[in-house]
Specification:
The N terminus and C terminus are likely disordered. Helix 5 crosses helix 7. The chain starts with 8 loop residues before the first helix and ends in a 13-residue tail after the last strand. It folds into 3 domains: 284 residues, Spore Coat Polysaccharide Biosynthesis Protein SpsA, Chain A (Alpha-Beta Complex); 110 residues, 3-Layer(aba) Sandwich (Rossmann fold); 237 residues, Jelly Rolls (Sandwich), CATH 2.60.120. Helix 2 links the parallel strand 1 and strand 2. Strands 22, 24, 25, 26, 27, 29, 34, 35, 36 and 38 form a 10-stranded mixed sheet that branches. An 8-stranded antiparallel sheet has the order 21-33-32-31-30-37-28-23, with no helix packed on it. A 7-stranded mixed sheet has the order 2-1-6-12-8-14-10, sandwiched between helices. It has 716 residues and is of the alpha+beta class. Belongs to the glycosyl hydrolase 16 family. This is Beta-glucanase. It holds the Pfam family Glyco_hydro_16. One of its GO terms (biological process) is carbohydrate metabolic process.
């Protein structure tokens, strides 16, 4: 398992030091390797590499070619590239005889014990589904095992394509190899030898002076660099199916294999090569309270060519293309009859003070305008999604024909733009068509508002000195509003089929949610935060969440938050993968204000874009103290706008790109009470005022769906 996601400054600095230090190692003769037939030699290297990442193949081949074998030949002479299984094209359900794509929290703890968690009935029952990336990685390794088991060499080094050889690699490997027991023919006698590894469990320490260590118990992460013998490969195949991530499952095989590690890691993974893997265990460890660090995650994209302008006929995939460009890191404005005047003039004249760097399906961008854009912007790119459009001759090789017939759209798009091939499925949005812009109306009932510090991301507009109030779109024809999915009022019982009581947490929450902290007393429900020692937290609290997810509608609750410093009362809509969120929060340090917030990340369901720590928060003056009495707070979420209401009056509104796009994925409705790890955000906890409670008197949810269509209302 690669934990580079949480690498801090010191770890990054140490990593880059190791990268530089390896170049000072002048011992480049790795006598272990030979492509001749010597029985004591390592005669094959397999590098697992995706077809769409030739850059990684070139780099790892260059890394290997820093070394020579015992006869002076470069190591590429014994290297074979293995075309990795791509997560985009793996079957949703792999062959169960080969791979079972699930494991348990107890399996994880068997390899990496945690003092905050125990292996018990609860962790054995906590099932975790592997991500598509983890499935693809495991299937790739299994296929390489088959090659080794049926191959013509007694053993092979298996490498993933994001590795480097640490300082002392050649000498360390020679010492490791020579210390292994030998068979009668002189071949090293082992099944599995780790050269890249991280000790995380209760493995025996390496004895002083020893060059290898025998593995008897689980406790080793990584499968990025290991030597596997022909007999060892067959043993692994005989014990299929793999269940869980491949590095976890390998730990479970130590009891019936001769498995070793080198005395120290001789191969390491690169931090400077962003991992395209998605780790299924990380959200679970966050939910149970083990992961307590959360930091802003901002896309680290290289310079993107642009501006990009995309045109095409209705129904030719323009909306999906806009989403795809957003997923690549573009700030993309799309599906409008025209641009705001200042933005369009800056685009036509090649001005730098543009808010956007991609424009898709904009009605005012005629062929003449495209000619002007290309002339004024030397790095402009034009994308055409249908063959019935004629482009100006000046566009030349800066244009891409991008139609439905393209077999691999990501490959075509990323090659054209010179960006990395993404690790997510290409979006399938239905075309929205050109929506009509209109002037933004003055909100008569708006309250005083103050924007707080925002995240920085491609999906947050940063106007600078340009006057900007978002993009207002004419209301769509009214959709049929179903009868309230949820209509709970005081005196009624919270329906278990509609609501679930949360029993988890998140990294910045200093309390653990437990069902015991949700109670009903007479006229209202109560969420209570109290001092209570648990293995992962010193506080417990209450939270409720809808079992269904919703897409657009009106969400309200009549509640009274506590006015206790350090305590946050939340009423919000939320999802991960991609992360989108619409918030109302009350900070106990000042309950005369209401904090509203939006997090936006683009992509279809399952896209692991979850950038953002602060979001785009705004403080709204209420004109009263919310902690003194009950009031009704609401979120009216529509495709073109979000409105926040207090006692039926709209007090704040955001339209598209004010400063984010409007969330467009199905979200879960939540109400919770928690203590923030951030003192800047919530203040110091007033422990002398605990326990404290948030009181709820009613909840109502009205979802907007077309009559007969409830496809978005899937269980969360």
């Amino acid at each position: 398992m690669n934990k580079r996601t949480f690498a801090d400054f010191r770890q990054n600095l140490l990593h880059y030091g190791r990268l530089r230090l390896r170049l000072a190692d002048w011992h480049r003769r790795a006598a272990v390797f030979s492509r001749a037939g010597e029985p004591d030699a390592l005669r094959r290297i397999y590098v697992i590499n995706l077809d769409r990442r030739p850059d990684r193949w070139r780099r790892v081949r260059g890394e290997l070619d820093r070394f020579r074998d015992r006869h002076g030949e470069r190591l590429s002479a014994v290297t074979r590239r293995f075309s990795a299984v791509d997560a985009r094209y793996t079957q949703a359900t792999p062959d169960p005889a080969t791979l079972v794509p699930r494991f348990t929290l107890a399996d994880q703890l068997t390899v990496e014990p945690n003092p905050l968690l125990r292996i018990d009935a609860a962790t054995r029952a906590r099932e975790i589904m592997m991500t598509r990336q983890e499935v693809a990685v495991a299937l790739s390794h299994i296929e390489v095992w088959k090659l080794i088991a049926s191959g013509d060499v007694p053993s092979a080094l298996v490498l993933e394509d994001d590795i480097f050889m640490a300082y002392g690699f050649a000498r360390g490997l020679d010492a490791t190899w020579s210390s292994l027991d030998r068979s009668a023919s002189g071949e090293p006698d082992f099944d599995l030898l780790y050269l890249a590894f991280e000790e995380v469990g209760n493995v025996d320490p390496v004895r002083n002076g020893a060059s290898t260590r025998r593995l008897q118990e689980p406790g080793i992460w990584e499968a990025s660099g290991y030597v596997l013998s022909r007999a060892g490969a067959q043993k692994l195949l005989d014990h299929l199916p793999v269940y869980g991530p491949v590095d976890l499952w390998l730990n479970m095989q130590f009891s019936h294999m001769r498995a070793y590690t080198a005395a120290r890691p001789l191969i390491a993974q690169r931090i400077d090569e962003p991992s395209s893997n998605s780790y299924s265990i990380l959200p679970i460890l966050s939910q149970v309270g083990v992961i307590t660090r959360e930091k802003p995650l901002v896309p680290a994209t290289k310079h993107l060519p642009g501006p990009v302008v995309a045109v095409g006929s209705p129904g030719s995939g323009l909306t999906a293309l806009a989403t795809a460009l957003s997923m690549l890191g573009y700030t993309c404005c799309s599906d409008l009859d025209g641009l705001p005047a200042a933005e369009e003039q800056a685009l036509l004249r090649g001005g730098r003070r543009r808010l956007f760097n991609a424009y898709v399906n904009i009605g005012s961008l005629s062929p003449e305008a495209l000619h002007q854009i290309v002339g004024a912007n030397p790095s402009a790119r034009i994308i055409v999604t249908s063959t019935d459009l004629t482009l100006p001759r000046k566009v030349g090789d800066r244009a891409l024909l991008f139609t439905h017939e393209a077999k691999d759209r990501w490959a075509l798009l990323s090659d054209f733009l010179g960006v990395d091939y993404p690790s997510f499925p290409y979006p399938t949005d239905v075309d929205l068509g050109m929506r009509i812009r209109r002037p933004r109306a003055l909100l008569q009932s708006a309250r005083n508002a103050m924007d707080l510090k925002h995240d920085t991301s491609p999906w947050i507009a940063t106007p600078g000195r340009i006057e900007w109030d978002g993009i207002t779109i004419s209301a769509e024809p009214p959709r049929h509003t179903l009868t309230a999915h949820v209509d709970w009022t005081s005196g009624g019982k919270l329906n278990d089929e509609v609501w679930k009581l949360r029993d988890d947490t998140f990294p910045s929450n200093m309390a653990l949610f437990t069902p015991a902290n949700v109670s009903q007393h007479g006229a209202h429900a109560r969420l209570t935060l109290r001092p209570e020692q648990t293995p992962v937290r010193e506080l417990t609290s209450g939270a409720i969440a809808s079992r269904a997810v919703y897409r657009y509608g009106k969400f309200s609750a009549e509640l009274r938050p506590p006015g206790v410093t350090g305590v946050v009362t939340g009423m919000f809509l939320h999802r991960n993968g991609p992360r989108q969120e619409i918030d109302i929060e009350f900070l106990g340090k000042d309950t005369t204000k209401m904090l509203v917030n939006v997090f936006y990340n683009p992509g279809p369901e399952g896209t692991k874009l979850e950038y953002g720590y602060r979001g785009t928060p705004t403080l709204i003056d209420l004109g009263f103290d919310a902690a003194h009495d009950f009031h009704t707070y609401g979120i009216d979420w529509q495709p073109g706008a979000i409105r926040w209401l207090v006692d039926g009056s709209v007090v704040h509104e955001r339209v598209a790109w004010d400063p984010t796009p409007i969330p467009n994925q199905s979200l879960q409705f939540n109400i919770n009470l928690w203590h923030s790890r951030s003192k800047e955000f919530a203040g110091d906890l007033a422990t002398d005022r605990l326990p404290t409670s948030a009181h709820i008197r009613s909840v109502a949810i009205h979802e907007n769906v077309t009559k007969g269509d409830q496809s978005d209302r899937r269980p969360f």
